[in-house]
Design a protein that fits this description.
CATH architecture: Sandwich
Number of helices: 5
Number of strands: 21
Strand content: 25-35%
Order of helices and strands: EEEEEHEEHEEEEEEEEEEEHEEEHH
Structural class: mainly beta
Strand order of the largest sheet: 5-6-8-17-12-15
Radius of gyration: 18 Å
Largest sheet: 6 strands, antiparallel
Number of domains: 1
Length: 270
């Protein structure tokens, strides 16, 4: 597992409630006392090219680092029992051609234990993000929503929605955490067939954000919103999403057991 070296460490803008050590630059991070997780994985630029507006673009490589199954040692048995998985991600600064640094986009594969394409709960810790989601991954994307999120903001992507995360500021890293289902998997089939999701995020030379529709999908409208609170899901805005689990595990249990909110998901929007 990664451990912090002698380099100076970053104090996060938002405290996630986990002892993690982020360096002032780069994609590496380590685990502090009482916290464990796997070795970091790194996503190369080549691995996400097929989803980009310009597959031949230049950009940071690797694009981001990720560790899944991070948590306090005393919580690990309960996380496994509840089929919950906590992830930590660091995005590089820079751009992918005219696009900001982002993930390639996917739909969650059906989880074997619950039979759902499960939701995901994001929380921004450092930097500025856009979390984009579309209702369907086929030719008609349905509702398309881009959520601007700052440190401390939470964003929920509902079951079966295709989505990706954007680093909105090319001059700084983006750091965030997320609750996922323990049997998570990614379905890239439709995204790759359409060479991306339904909308591409673009930056002007002045680093202003605008959007371009992916014409391989049916025409759609994009709603752009700020992050909101989720009282209907039992989330407390005053706690980090990891501390919410520690205070009341039921408050995030819907991530791995979305059936309990079946009626709410039908009309839910991020």
């Amino acid at each position: 597992m990664p451990q912090a070296g002698n380099k100076s460490t970053l104090t996060l803008t938002f405290d996630p409630g986990l002892h993690l050590r982020f360096q002032n630059e780069g994609l590496d991070f380590g685990y502090g006392p009482g916290v464990s997780g796997p070795s970091l994985e790194y996503r190369s630029l080549d691995s996400i090219r097929r989803s980009l507006r310009d597959p031949d673009c230049d950009g940071p490589d690797p694009v981001y680092s990720i560790a899944m199954d991070v948590g306090r040692d005393e919580d690990l048995a309960e996380l496994k029992r509840r089929m919950l998985l906590f992830g930590v991600v660091v995005y590089a600064e820079g751009q992918l051609g005219a696009e900001p640094v982002r993930s390639q986009g996917h739909v969650h594969a059906i989880s074997p234990h619950c039979g759902w394409s499960t939701p995901e709960l994001f929380e921004i810790w450092q930097g500025r993000a856009i979390i984009y989601g579309q209702e369907h991954s086929g030719d008609d994307p349905g509702r398309c929503i881009a959520i601007h999120a700052n440190p401390g903001d939470k964003v929920v992507i509902p079951p079966s929605w295709a989505h990706y995360v954007v680093n909105l500021d090319p001059n700084s890293r983006l750091i965030f955490g997320a609750w996922c289902d323990r049997q998570y998997g990614f379905d890239y089939a439709q995204m790759r067939a359409h060479r991306g999701l339904a909308w591409f995020p673009l930056l002007t030379p002045a680093e202003e954000m605008h959007w371009e529709q992916n014409t391989r999908y049916s025409s759609s409208k994009l709603a752009i919103r700020n992050a909101r609170e989720y009282p209907e899901l039992g989330l407390a805005s005053s706690r980090s999403i990891y501390e919410s689990f520690r205070h009341d595990p039921e408050s995030v249990q819907w991530v791995s057991d979305p059936e309990r909110l079946r009626d709410s998901w039908l009309r839910f929007e991020p």
